[in-house]
Amino acid sequence: MKIWWLLNIVWLIIFAAGAVFIGVRKVDGAGAVQTPEIKMLSFGILAVVFLFVILFQLMQLAIIHFMDKKRIQ
């Protein structure tokens, strides 16, 4: 269970770093200027990925709890 929490903290740091990177960059890798609309689109894409990760982590948590309860009985 401690590994699960550690991995969640790592995911949180990765997404926070991604959000900061999107927020502060002026030009992307292709040389396109980042307008507020493009930044909001990028934040939205990051949020969708974050939701998928949260969903997967919650499924793992349910499995871990189920296995722990089964092991105790």
TrEMBL record:
Keyword tags: Membrane, Transmembrane, Transmembrane helix
The keyword Transmembrane appears for this protein: yes
Pfam families: DUF3923 (PF13061)
Membrane-crossing segments per the record: 5-24, 44-67
Official protein name in the record: DUF3923 family protein
